[in-house]
Amino acid sequence: MPYSNFRCSHAILNSLWRRRFLLNFPDDGQKVEGNRIKNEIKGEMSMLEIEDLTVEVDGKTLLHDVNLEVKKGYTNVLFGPNGAGKSALMRTIMGFSEYKVVKGRILFNGEDITSLPVDERARRGLGIMMQRPPDMSGIRLRDLIKVVSKGKKDPEALAENLNMNRFLDRDVNVGFSGGEIKRSELLQLAAQNPALYLLDEPESGVDLVSIEQVGLTIKGLLEEGIACPGESCIRGKSALIITHTGQVLDYVTADRGYILCNGTIKCSGNPLKMLEEIKSKGYEECLECKLMK
Amino acid sequence: MQADEVNLKKRAESAAGKKATFGEDFELERFEEGSRISKPIEDLQTLDEESKRTLLQVGVVPSEEGRSGSLLVLDNTVSHSSLKDKNVELMSTRKALQKYEWLKDYSWKLVAVDTDKYTAKTYLEDADGYFVRVPAGKKSALPVQTCLLLGRDRVFQTVHNIVIVEEGASLDIITGCTAKKEVEEGLHLGISEMYVKKGATLNFTMIHNWAEQIGVRPRTVIHVEEGGTYVSNYICLKPVRSVQTYPTVKLEGKGAVTRLNTIAIAHPGSELDLGSRAIFNAPGTKAELISRTITIGGRIVARGEMIGNAKGAKGHLECKGLVLTDKGSQLAIPILEANVDDVELTHEAAVGKIAKDQVEYLMARGLTEDEAVGLIVRGFLDVGIRGIPEELRNEIENTIAQTAFGM
């Protein structure tokens, strides 16, 4: 029964919940302990919560009753077969108008953002790496980087890390290869500096040499400015990553995995174990999942 | 009067009532003749502040800094002409015709006097204008600037320009066409005949900034010889009643190349009928006609025509039009004609609104909707002026930044 492995995070949650009671004891010795735990609990704060989300595009239901959570400092992974609705979920979280939320809500740092426009969400700290972004004819990557970073970051320096300097004077996405699109998206995200990264298949279409570069860049972005392990729980960046191959997980530590199938979340658990299962058994079981009813 | 002059006059008179093929018909009688006498302006910097601003908005620098020469036509008078660069000749067309006997072989040889009533009128008025010539092998280090200025309300201006870039020479021209602030109504008729000789290059940038009730009828033909290059940038971003133009480039020598860029914004009440035509009359000639237009309430007709008459001709035509309001309209009319085999002419035309996915893509990066639309619009127009010398582009980009965002 592989699913038993996926329940471990619940155990942590339960223990935290229990320890929370400790705070109620007015004993001095426990106050110190209390502060520590307070921080720990703070670290378990939700950055993104999705509740019973049902989404339509052109009157067709793509997602139904989706529940998902990304805690502050966590990197969660979204698995699922092609056409399951993973990209749709990510684009709904970002707020693209094509995706109509007909039920449920999306909370970001506790605020209901379900009906906020895309730019408001971006300003609150959401950032997306798209799979197939539109061609932006006439807009040079350099200029976009400047605008996105509000002139605070030097496009040359940012591009250096991603070996993208020669793309700075090209029109964004126009004639870019799959791998170039990924690197350009990461470059823009680096300029944008979001709190939650929504990464839609960061490794797809990337050649083997560049995968390391993409993986390390993502790792770098997620760990930026983090001095100690505890800090990542409080101020750290969060990520929700869609991956088919799991290659990106060689570079970033994933905390939790979700399997999305037929438009809904079937289960969640240890992402690496999930990946292993998926690699050996595929999604056939998920399609006929008996656990979720 | 010589025989061919008599002949021209006859032809012009017979065409005095001939309506143009395209665009609103203007009754010439409704306008007074623009003044032929005005006080010479020794220094453009002595102009009043308002006029100086008007000039600057069309790329004409009153201090003449960064320019090799300047010529100003006010109504129907050449009222300023100055030159710093010895590699260029710049004077009024009338003076040049007096000075050079041979110039009559260039005058009214590309534009037919009987094209329509506007060419006929310009001929019959014996219009003055600018004459620019660069001798063989010479290069003007800086652009020459010319300004066609309407100074009085309800007058018509007729202008006749001749540009000759001799063999292996190179020239940049910036022409600003505009009206003084007090001018509400008027008519501008401008004939331009340009000769780009063997291996020569001419970069011609024209910025229009008229007023809501002004009609504009330029008539332009360019003759390009073997290995010559003609690049034109036409920019019209401010309100105007009606512009109808269809500059034609005749590629007459082997390997001659042209690129015509048009960027324009049609405001409510404006009608812009903007065409570009390339005729491939020699083997291995190339042309690119790029048009990027936006309507925010006016009507735009974007015409493009390529006629392939010689083998190895290669051309691409691109008309793209954005419609930003329900009141505006865009009509793209691309025409391709191949009269021999081994000709490769292509076109790409698209009209419509800004793609929502583009706007939201930028919004997902934190830009507001207005900022996103602004960036897309600027990028859209920017594509229309790529590949031109950097200093010129900076100026045009400034103009776009000033105007496109005030819309």
Short note summarizing the structure:
The complex is a heterodimer of chains A (293) and B (407). With 293 residues, chain A is an alpha/beta fold.
3D architecture notes:
Chain A is of the alpha/beta class and 293 residues long. Chain A has 11 helices and 12 strands. In chain A, strands 6-9-10-3-11-12 form a 6-stranded mixed sheet, sandwiched between helices. A 4-stranded antiparallel sheet of chain A has the order 2-1-4-5, covered by helices on one side. In chain A, a hairpin with a 2-residue loop joins strand 11 and strand 12 (264-269). In chain A, helix 5 (141-148) runs parallel beside helix 7 (178-192), helix 6 (155-162) packs across helix 7 (178-192) and helix 7 (178-192) runs parallel beside helix 8 (208-223). The relative contact order of chain A is 0.17. Chain B is of the alpha/beta class and 407 residues long. Chain B has one domain (3-404). Chain B contains 7 helices and 21 strands. In chain B, 56% of the residues are buried. The model of chain B has no long low-confidence stretch (mean pLDDT 93). Chain A binds chain B through residues 94-98, 117-119, 121-123, 126-128, 130, 133-134, 136-139, 143-144, 147-148, 171, 188, 191-192, and chain B through 355-358, 360-369, 371-372, 375-376, 378-383.
